Amino acid sequence: MKSSLIVLSLLSVSAAAWADGVLKPMHGGVMAEAPSGLRIELAADPAGLAVYLRSHSDKLLASQGVSGDVVLLGAQGKQTAALTPAGDNKLTAALKPQPGAKALVRVTQPGLPVDQVRLSLP
């Protein structure tokens, strides 16, 4: 009986952990969630690459005062560019998207430690 209760408890905790659902990009990019809960979407943009920020509860986070960079590893080698706020929850980097490249996105919000995610561009 006790082992059944333990299993049921673990299953309910697992279900609660997945209650947020699937990460859904809103700008046609790829998404990941940092350990802090910061959700980062990396998408192609006319200026190069765009990063969109959302909270763990899927609310838009303002880009004002946020800094960071994007590192791309692809056929053209390693390229790095700074992220600059571009209004609302958007930051931009002057890098052209490279299909199949691996990306490391680092974001620093005021007063918080650096968040980073790794993504693969389609």
Structure description:
This protein has one helix spanning 2-17, and strands at 30-33, 39-45, 48-54, 67-74, 77-85, 90-93, 102-108, 115-120. The protein is mainly beta and 122 residues long. It has one domain (29-120): Sandwich (Immunoglobulin-like), CATH 2.60.40. An 8-stranded antiparallel sheet has the order 1-2-3-6-5-4-7-8, with no helix packed on it. It is globular, with a radius of gyration of 17 Å. The termini are far apart.
Q: How many separate helices? A: 1
* Biggest sheet overview: 8 strands, antiparallel
Helix content: 10-25%
As for the CATH topology, it is Immunoglobulin-like
**Structure class:** mainly beta
Could you list the spans in which at least 5 consecutive residues all have pLDDT below 50?
A: 2-19
Q: Could you spell the SSE succession in H and E letters?
A: HEEEEEEEE
Q: Under the CATH scheme, which architecture would be assigned?
A: Sandwich
Strand order of the largest sheet: 1-2-3-6-5-4-7-8
Topology summary:
Layout: H1 2-17, E1 30-33, E2 39-45, E3 48-54, E4 67-74, E5 77-85, E6 90-93, E7 102-108, E8 115-120
Antiparallel strand pairs: 1-2, 2-3, 3-6, 4-5, 4-7, 5-6, 7-8
Quick recap:
The protein has 122 residues and is mainly beta.
Distinctive features:
8 strands; 122 residues; 13% helix; eight-stranded antiparallel β-sheet; Immunoglobulin-like; globular; single chain; disordered N terminus; 1 helix; mainly beta
